[in-house]
Amino acid sequence: DTVFHPQTLPDLSNLLTMSGMMEYLGATSFGNHRSVLQFDFKESLPDLGPNELLIQVAYVELNPVDLQKLNAKPSQDVPNPPLIVGYGGSGTVLEVGSGLVNQRTDWVGQLVAFLCDARRPGAYATHVAVHVQSVAKIPFAISLEHAATVPLAGCTAYESLVKLQIQPSTPDQHRKLLIVGGSGGVGSWATLLARARYPHLEIICTAGSELSQNWCLRNGATRVVPHSSLVANLGGGRDGSVDYILCLSTPTKELANDMSELIRPYGHVCLVAPPKESL
């Protein structure tokens, strides 16, 4: 995951705020992001719900889901254009909704990280409205740039680990978590969070290059195996070899077969990406 900085455009954000306007990167038709995204949109600042915050965006987390949504229906027009993607980022709180007026001094001027509602316009913009429960104040030692990479990947990793229902283990219980795609944004956060929460859990990541393998190990993985030949590397069969699988790759038939061989009886599997074909 990388970040996009709207302020690298001509810095009109303060003038736009004073005029009640915002600028954003949007699309009126679906397709490749290089051809459908445009900067030349001006729009009124978003209306705030009672429990929402108006945030002036500093950085936006770029994620593959942005490209998937932009290319959802190639060559078709966007209903109710423009389509604005971007679901995590950082910035400064400018205003609060009517239900938060008693907390206004606690929020206005705060540097925050935020996670957007996917049903509303996203954060490829100078301003965004976000529910207060999806906003976190940034500690002093963390930069806005670094904070922008946390919400989408970090929350996805956290939610995935919760869904796996991992049980605390002792060293002699030998519980194992397999993270398929451990070197990406979500995989990195999942490894860090799982290691912090479950110190005795054996964490196995799949990764390709030596650089990616070393990254997984630095994040807390016990060991790293190649993406291919999972059963050969880990062992399969009726009894399986791992208790939990977090799959961050698009599950192909081959990968689904491998996971069915690897998972132990009553184990848990979490798929983050949907399959592109019937499994």
TrEMBL record:
Highest taxon in the source lineage:
Eukaryota
* Enoyl reductase (ER) domain boundaries: 32-273
Pfam families per the UniProt record, alphabetical:
ADH_N
The signal peptide here is: none
Molecular function via GO: oxidoreductase activity
Concerning PANTHER family, the annotation shows: PROTEIN AST1-RELATED
What is this protein's record name?
Enoyl reductase (ER) domain-containing protein
